[in-house]
């Protein structure tokens, strides 16, 4: 049986520091068969549309934020875990590339500001999937920002909408919500689709765009999937406000 850890939306340098450190310690001790990072690993605040003309546009550069992610997540993961690590494309990951195309075309470089190159994934022996990743029979991982995926207001709803679109069960991020949703159809409920949203791992206090009260329907969590041939059993691992969590009876 394979064990796959699924994480999303660290949005470094806006990550929850303790949650990130506890996650890395968990990966090192648990040694899963694979880690899937469903994207938004780096926030890339400066090229965000709401930073235009504001102080945030002149903060950390794209390359500085990428270097921060490498130093504080990717390299520490590689120091304790040499297994497969796959990063998926995401809306935040596309920000540097889109910023140049839309606002600074004279400086556009096709390769330099692609996320997999900014994060030196090849040097770290990590993989990159730009849109979706078929990681098990009948299951795909995708960030959730692709056109045609209908956003829902409740946790798990967007993932099940994506599952119906793809015709496969889906594990995703993007919504910052955490839930598992199932839909069955056919005679004797013979056809089943599952949608999994794995939450986020950022520090909401750092998300200034939420306003002073920081109100949001977000849940800090990550996913743990057990893959036995064609059978996939998903679990949501809730992360507490102090960055701690419990997996299989062990607290991190």
What about the largest sheet?
Answer: 6 strands, mixed
Per CATH, the class reads: Alpha Beta
Number of strands: 13
The domain count comes to 1
Mean pLDDT: 90
**CATH hierarchy: architecture:** 4-Layer Sandwich
InterPro entries: Metallo-depent_PP-like (IPR029052)
Organism: Streptomyces yunnanensis
Protein name: Calcineurin-like phosphoesterase superfamily domain-containing protein
Describe this structure in words.
There is one protein chain. The chain starts with a strand and ends with a strand. The strands form three sheets. The chain has a six-stranded mixed sheet, with no helix packed on it. The protein has a five-stranded mixed sheet with strand order 5-6-7-9-8, with helices on one face. Strands 12-13 form a two-stranded antiparallel ribbon. α1 (17-30) runs parallel beside α2 (62-80). The chain has a single domain, classed as Purple Acid Phosphatase, chain A, domain 2 (4-Layer Sandwich). The chain has six helices and 13 strands. The mean pLDDT is 90. The chain has 252 residues and is of the alpha/beta class. It comes from Streptomyces yunnanensis. This is Calcineurin-like phosphoesterase superfamily domain-containing protein.
Summarize this structure briefly.
This protein has helices at residues 17-30, 62-80, 95-103, 115-118, 121-124, 157-166; strands at 2-7, 34-37, 84-88, 127-129, 132-136, 139-142, 169-172, 178-185, 191-198, 221-228, 231-238, 246-247, 250-251. The chain is an alpha/beta fold and 252 residues long.
């Amino acid at each position: 049986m394979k064990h796959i850890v699924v994480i999303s939306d660290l949005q470094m340098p806006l990550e929850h520091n303790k949650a990130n450190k506890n996650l890395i310690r968990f990966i090192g001790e648990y040694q899963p068969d694979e880690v899937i990072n469903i994207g938004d690993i780096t926030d890339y605040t400066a090229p965000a549309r709401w930073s235009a003309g504001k102080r945030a546009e002149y903060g950390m550069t794209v390359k500085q934020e990428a270097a921060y992610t490498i130093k504080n997540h990717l390299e520490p993961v590689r120091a304790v875990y040499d297994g497969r690590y796959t990063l998926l494309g995401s809306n935040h990951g596309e920000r540097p590339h889109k910023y140049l195309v839309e606002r600074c075309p004279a400086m556009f470089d096709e390769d330099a500001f692609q996320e997999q190159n900014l994060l030196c994934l090849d040097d770290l022996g990590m993989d990159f999937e730009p849109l979706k990743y078929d990681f098990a029979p009948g299951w795909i991982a995708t960030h959730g920002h692709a056109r045609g995926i209908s956003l829902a207001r409740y946790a798990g709803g967007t993932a099940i909408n994506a599952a119906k679109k793809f015709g496969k069960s889906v594990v995703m991020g993007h919504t910052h919500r955490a839930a598992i949703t199932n839909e069955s159809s056919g005679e004797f409920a013979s056809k089943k689709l599952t949608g999994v949203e794995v939450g986020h791992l950022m520090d909401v206090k750092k998300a200034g765009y939420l306003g002073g009260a920081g109100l949001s329907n977000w849940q800090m969590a990550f996913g743990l999937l057990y893959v036995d041939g064609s059978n996939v059993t998903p679990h949501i691992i809730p992360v507490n406000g102090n960055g701690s969590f419990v997996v299989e009876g062990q607290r991190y």
